[in-house]
Automatic annotation (TrEMBL):
Lyase in keyword set: no
Chain residues that bind substrate: Y53, R56
Acyltransferase as UniProt keyword: no
Molecular function as annotated in GO: histone deacetylase activity, NAD-dependent; NAD+ binding; protein-malonyllysine demalonylase activity; protein-succinyllysine desuccinylase activity
UniProt binding sites for NAD(+): 9-28, 86-89, 169-171, 212
Residues that span the membrane, as ranges: none
UniProt organism field: Nonlabens agnitus
Record's function text: NAD-dependent lysine deacetylase and desuccinylase that specifically removes acetyl and succinyl groups on target proteins. Modulates the activities of several proteins which are inactive in their acylated form.
Name of the protein in question: NAD-dependent protein deacylase
Written domain comment of the UniProt record: 2 residues (Tyr-53 and Arg-56) present in a large hydrophobic pocket are probably involved in substrate specificity. They are important for desuccinylation activity, but dispensable for deacetylation activity.
Amino acid sequence: MKKIIILSGAGVSAESGIATFRDADGLWEGHDVMEVASPQGFENNPTLVLDFYNQRRAQLHTVEPNEAHYCIAALERNYEVHVITQNVDDLHERAGSTNVLHLHGELLKARSTSNPNYIVDWTDDITVADSCPEGSQMRPHIVWFGEEVPAMETAIELTAQADAVIIVGTSLQVYPAAGLMHYAPQETPIYLIDPRPNLKSNGNLTVIEENASTGVRKACDMIHLSLTNT
Ligand code: APR
């Protein structure tokens, strides 16, 4: 079965009503990234950081997947699909995708600050009163700036075997995730979907200047054409 890799960022959830990070009125506009999304920020003011993620987790219960998430999930009918996402929402899963790798963690999980292997599902607020069985403070299961991206090795292995890649809704500003596309095999077609792309079509890269819900559908049609003709 042909293998398709999806590399998604905040833009794939924009039409579901979740703010991106770097667009106008994006998440980082109102916040100092290092204050709300770094280990130092958490040490300095755990309540501020916990509240930042509590607000985003609460919003998750009010939004739905959009056409782009459903279109990506439907690809699984004909291909082996791996979604490698920088997003911490669960919209890919709720749309039906079954292989989702979260490079930057998951809003709906929490972990112990002393035992990184103690990771539990968490749908409500995390407060400074919440501790793990060993008595250590619980924190969002999110990869903060300056922290390792544990899933990167798996992501590279998957991308190196791709027969087609869709990149959707990411400004490609944050490494190592932004470098993932370069691990795809030389001839593998890559489709990049973004209403304000910062790359141009070139060689095996096709840029689709559309919102995710429209652009992903177009990319899927192009993939069907290219993979059934090979
Ligand atoms: N459809 C598709 N793409 C969109 C849409 C849309 N409706 N709306 C905006 N975009 C695009 C923007 O043009 C931009 O290129 O989505 C991208 C969002 O970029 P960022 O806000 O930088 O989000 P992302 O690339 O996911 O950020 C990567 O940075 O702050 C960290 O950990 C955080 O995972 C995040 C990482």
